[in-house]
Amino acid sequence: MSQGAIAFLFIIFLPILGITGSKLLCIAHYTDLIFATFGCLFMGIMMDASRLSERLALIVIGICGSNLRVLQAGIMVVTSLSSIFVSSSFMSAFWMKVTQAIIAELGNAGVLVPNSDEEPYERQSRPYPSNPVVGIYLSIAYGATFGGMISLFQDPNADLYKFFQKFTDVKPGSFLMLFVGPFILGLVVTAIWINVIFLGLFSGSVKEQVQAAANGKDAVKRAMEDKKGALGPWNAYAILVFLMIIITMLLLFTRRPICWPGWYDYFHRSKCGLSVAIIAMCLLYFAVPANYFFCRYYWCRQPAKEGTAPSLVSWKIVNNNVPWAHVFMLCAGYGCLTGYKDSKLLQLVSNGIFNQKLDNSVSLIVGCLLGTLITNLAPAQGVVANTLDSMLNPRNGAGVIALPYAAALHNQFLLPVSTTSNTIVAGFGNVRPFQFLLGGVVPTLFMIIFICASIAIFGNIAFKGYLQT
């Protein structure tokens, strides 16, 4: 059964079983984050249409060469660092397209086998990527998650910070103090684990493939010189696309910083989510011409050769390349969260925790485990909006697990629906859920330990006795 059909089972069976109504489920399929995800996918498709991804891939190959371990570590680091300042969803789509172009070039140079020989379960569907390629793709997804963990410029940290400000005078720097240690240690553990599982760090046929790719630097160098000649100098199309992407990054960076007012704070009538900036720019993707022929209608001189002025990306290309099934599964994750809240199961769990009267050390573990479980079933932004205030409010006695619960919402490693970054990587790269499970099981376990340790060490310092209230 196709993945897209499975995603709609929630709409069918949750109302029939009396868990929640179809109206709420349909609303959950049109959240702000879903539209932001569409915008990120459109941007990535535009990069391929303009061949901007190929031009940027040549730059990255010039730095990393054909060494897949260096490429994996470098991609993971740049994705995490860029995701600190710009939406992790947007940056995962950006680096995913650059990485796919890199993989294609290494495959054309004959130093890497991009695709697995396993037959796809759906006829005429895209081939599955090989193990080394899966490892590099997962590095993008997990790097984006780690970057969002210590970000002062995007949700859900902005919402989490506002939540805790209601009950304590925590400062932005103190708030992020809890995440610096897990961020650094988590990156190291995850990079090593991906090398072990997907890049054959110790032994096996995959290790031989990785070594062969590293030894093929001369072939890659010759192939890149030919590619540069084929692409030629930067044209107006690629320059305009890159300019649009940079403007979008600036809009996302200045939207809602924790440390100073952003343009979000000046619109008091309604909430301006990520989709406002991303979809606004997407409209320009479809409207701005990809070349200079349109100038003849305005102020430029008549072009020497007549032609058309197509837009930066067309809807036909977008419609054919958006991984619709993966987006529908992301919507199903929101549907699961809607049923969790509307069926009163959320309140039942909250009351159960409160009635146990757990001490701080046990609450630390319970909150971290619960946050990890919930955030792997639905993106953290939706979890924060639907559960944090109602379930873990210090006024109802359950606040002692609010801090570990909130911190654990960044443990988004196990499924394609755990975060929009995972969805984008799974959709563009055809990475399957069991591969997320393989790549994410050890990072998840270690992140639980790191987060609990960080809160135990720095929690009272950062939140000034909040854990004793």
Topology:
Blueprint: H1 3-7, H2 9-16, H3 22-28, H4 32-50, H5 52-64, H6 68-85, H7 88-108, H8 131-149, H9 157-165, H10 172-197, H11 205-215, H12 217-231, H13 236-253, H14 274-287, H15 315-321, H16 324-342, H17 345-356, H18 360-375, H19 380-391, H20 402-408, H21 420-429, H22 433-463
- Helix content range of the residues, please? 55-70%
Dominant shape: globular
Percent of residues in β-strands = under 5%
**DSSP E strands, number:** 0
| Element order: H for helix, E for strand | HHHHHHHHHHHHHHHHHHHHHH
Task: Count structural domains.
Answer: 2
* Mean pLDDT over the full residue set: 85
Transmembrane segments: 28-46, 58-86, 134-153, 174-202, 234-253, 274-294, 361-384, 436-463
GO molecular function: citrate transmembrane transporter activity; succinate transmembrane transporter activity
Protein name: GH11690
Organism: Drosophila grimshawi (Hawaiian fruit fly)
Write up this protein.
The protein is mainly alpha-helical. The protein folds into 2 domains: 32-320, no CATH class; 325-468, no CATH class. 68% of the residues lie in helices and 0% in strands. It contains 22 helices and no strands. The chain has helices at 3-7, 9-16, 22-28, 32-50, 52-64, 68-85, 88-108, 131-149, 157-165, 172-197, 205-215, 217-231, 236-253, 274-287, 315-321, 324-342, 345-356, 360-375, 380-391, 402-408, 420-429, 433-463. Helix 8 (131-149) runs parallel beside helix 22 (433-463) and helix 18 (360-375) packs parallel to helix 20. The longest helix has 31 residues, at 433-463. The model has no long low-confidence stretch (mean pLDDT 85).
